[in-house]
Amino acid sequence: MPTTPGTEPRVEARTADHPSAESGPDARFGRRALLTGGAAGAGIGAVLGIGAALGIPALRDATSGAGAGGSGGSGSTGTNGGDGSDPTVIDAAGFGGESLPCHGAHQAGVMTAPVAHARYVAYTLRPESDRAALARMFRILTGDIEGLTSGRAPLADPEPELAARPSNLTITIGVGPELVRRIDASRVPEWLAPLPAFERDRLDGRHDGGDLLVLLQADDPLPLAHAARMLERDLRSFADVRWSQQGFRQARGAEPNGTTMRNLMGQVDGTINPAPVDEDFASLVWIGSGDDRGDQPTWVHGGSALVLRRIRMQLDTWDMVDRPGREQTIGRTLADGSPLTGGDEHTPVDFEATNANGLPVIPSYAHVRRAHSTDPSERIFRRSTNYDEGGESGLLFACYQRDPLAQFVPIQRRLDELDLLNEWVEHTGSAVFAILPGFTPDTGLGDTLLA
Amino acid sequence: MPTTPGTEPRVEARTADHPSAESGPDARFGRRALLTGGAAGAGIGAVLGIGAALGIPALRDATSGAGAGGSGGSGSTGTNGGDGSDPTVIDAAGFGGESLPCHGAHQAGVMTAPVAHARYVAYTLRPESDRAALARMFRILTGDIEGLTSGRAPLADPEPELAARPSNLTITIGVGPELVRRIDASRVPEWLAPLPAFERDRLDGRHDGGDLLVLLQADDPLPLAHAARMLERDLRSFADVRWSQQGFRQARGAEPNGTTMRNLMGQVDGTINPAPVDEDFASLVWIGSGDDRGDQPTWVHGGSALVLRRIRMQLDTWDMVDRPGREQTIGRTLADGSPLTGGDEHTPVDFEATNANGLPVIPSYAHVRRAHSTDPSERIFRRSTNYDEGGESGLLFACYQRDPLAQFVPIQRRLDELDLLNEWVEHTGSAVFAILPGFTPDTGLGDTLLA
Fold first, then answer.
1. How far apart are the first and last CA of chain A?
2. Which neighbouring-strand residues pair with B216?
3. Bridge partners of B120?
4. Which of A79, A372, B24, B276 gets the highest tally of CB atoms within 10 A of its CB?
């Protein structure tokens, strides 16, 4: 990192926004809040009020959370138990200061609004990591997550400046069957195991399974990279990294808020998805809630089941298919994701519609038809990201549910049997984790498992 | 990519912003402009006016280019010959529609304002790629760059929707010595060769050299990934990918505009840097301009010399050094990058200052002292990004100059000899490329080389 020598240093832009050297974390935030949080925050709110009065939704979209949160406080005193999507604004000068509460009935990062960057890091427990060690590990994880997601670096963090602007960082912890077995082998849920094999699986062993999952998500890759490294450092005496996968969506602010992401095949991806505000969301996603059958161990109540599939795209051959052919493969237009049976992106697909020749408009092999179920309990909450590294492109398909065997597996079985899209995708990685229930200032991650 | 089945599709947010299926690229832009560009753009401008009148710089920062550009036109009619940092606004609903002109005396992507994501892709020419083939290749590259950077996908692009929102995408082309030799061996500049070996180099052969460089930069990783793939596809019959490296800075909008980036060691990185508005910028960076000695081949006049070094950071041992030790290693504070001799980030370093014991405040081994030169022509224009993949973290150090042997090499030699930072970094990759001069609607990339 050579510094350009020069007798006249250049001022491209001056900012006095960084924390000062001599003050601790709290003083730092106090000072920043004083400098920028108060007045500027109120200003933004005032101008947003004007924008809203003028009926200009674009402005609300462009500044998003900065207006929605509005409290301007420096702490994360809320919980994510509600819709979990309103960030707390620490600093109005850029969204870097936005943070999401990590406490609540459920962990953050599942039903919080999608952010731009995600990293999944799976660990293999060391042989010596017994119950007592795991209890220590969860205590450390709990403190690290409280610090890193709030912008107050944990005490042992040597680079607090890289943690000070969390950009809606969430850290979500999942466990694999081996971790549960080390605590109590009788409490491993039936579904917490490798998925049943699918005919078309091409798992290469590089992104399968794991004993512990750390899922980091943020709108900025810098605090995410720093947090991932801090956790890796603190986990080192308990577990080794097994694999790591990085995903992305369109950048924060590039599209109007709420725009459904596009995948690297060019498709609008994720349109039909339960929403956290839905009446049946909890019973689909959160274990032990709603009309749950009650046959799951209590330690995972308030948690969820994550299925992560690495889906490699064969984009070179996909590109050779003409546009109508690609649209028929999916059942939706490439332009805006609307069903081939008409309407806009969010219009329901009409599976009965026929064309002038009496043939179905949505072909029998179309992805949307194969993925569709008439059983409303057979639904999943998708939260995928794109990946593109090492000369390989695809989708990190992620979905949350109460029971993968009852929700993801029947969907994937239908796709596995007959989905024209299979010609251009292959599943090369597969993992299932139990997302732990949430925690509060008075409890910790893993408490219910260790109880 | 299973679609969640469900009888009641969910509306998380409705947008009618995507191009319609039946219209071509131009109609698409016309329609989008009609829907969102006009009215919303005016609205943003109006509200920004209010914000500015109230003296709220944060709002201007948060919406940045959307307000600065303001023309709301759908084309990129300007050139990047000026300061090149004001994006043209295509669509006010998010910055995705911003595009930068690719035409000008110099290629875009060098002195254009730093964006969030960068990808360097180096190619090795195929044996059969002779002068005639290279002429075809440059024609294809020229058209692809004009299309992809403006948001109008090239005709052969099967996924125009992934190109429609360029997010300030720039594509910058460099050439290595072998490519020049295939056209005219007598015209290879002396500096267009592997750098002289440095004592502490630890080049592992995975990120060295190359015959052709494609540098893609954008504020959104999605159009960047798509453009990289389109170019790889179109280059396939001429060259094979040799290596690819991805870099990032803080996300667009996370920090106030103009904030100097931080690297993964936590340092403010890149403070002292010539600025495109400086009087001597051109003579430092653009070959054949200012007081250039005139000994460089004319084909590279208007171009520049890029040095790219992959610098791996040993963050685990770096973290073990206490904070004063890390600050003394650099000569600047970690908090805000100000020199240890006082002031703010942009205050000149006082190399003569001594402490109470009569010792220099900036130690003899400090990075800033070793990088500093009293010769003002011995300066470089830095444009680095962070990398963090495959369990490895560091800096993709990039710098532009007229002549690396006269500018980068003396700096790096001083650092190589004595820079305490060497204890925690190692250079594992090294490449030098000649950045071609710019092109206009009437000329093409490589014209001067092929003339």
1. 50
2. B119, B171
3. B215, B245
4. A372
CA-wise closest residue to A210 among A26, A17, A429, A12: A429
| Chain A partners within 8 Å of B21 (Cβ) | 327, 333-336
Query: Where do the structural domains in chain B lie, given as residue ranges?
Result: 36-101, 103-255+436-450
Smallest CA-to-CA distance from A403 within A286, A275, A272 is with A286
- Partner-chain residue, chosen from A391, A399, A421, that has the shortest CB–CB distance to B244: A391
Q: What is the pLDDT of residues B305-357, one digit of tens each?
A: 999 999 999 999 999 999 999 999 999 999 999 999 999 999 999 999 999 99
Instruction: From the options 3.40.50.720, 1.20.1510.10, 3.40.50.620, 3.30.70.1030, give the CATH code of B103-255+436-450.
Output: 3.30.70.1030
CA angle at residue B119 from B227 to A214, to 5 degrees? 105
Instruction: Give the closest residue to A382 by CA, choosing from A280, A309, A287, A303.
Output: A309
Q: Tell me the two tokens of residue A359.
A: 């043939």
pLDDT in tens, B203-215: 999 999 999 999 9
User: What residues of B are in contact with residue A337 (Cβ under 8 Å)?
Assistant: 18
Q: What is the dihedral of CA B279, B281, B282, B284, to 10 degrees?
A: 130
Q: Is B199 left (phi over 0), alpha (psi -120 to 50) or beta?
A: alpha
How far is residue A194 from each of residues A211, A289, A299, measured CA to CA in Å? 12, 24, 20
* Banded pLDDT at A35 (limits 50, 70, 90): very low
ipTM score here? 0.82
For helices B38-53 and A38-53, angle between their N-to-C axes, nearest 10 degrees = 140
Q: Which two tokens stand for residue A142?
A: 């709990």
Give the residue from B14, B17, B18 with the most A CB atoms within 10 Å of its CB, the best one to mutate: B18
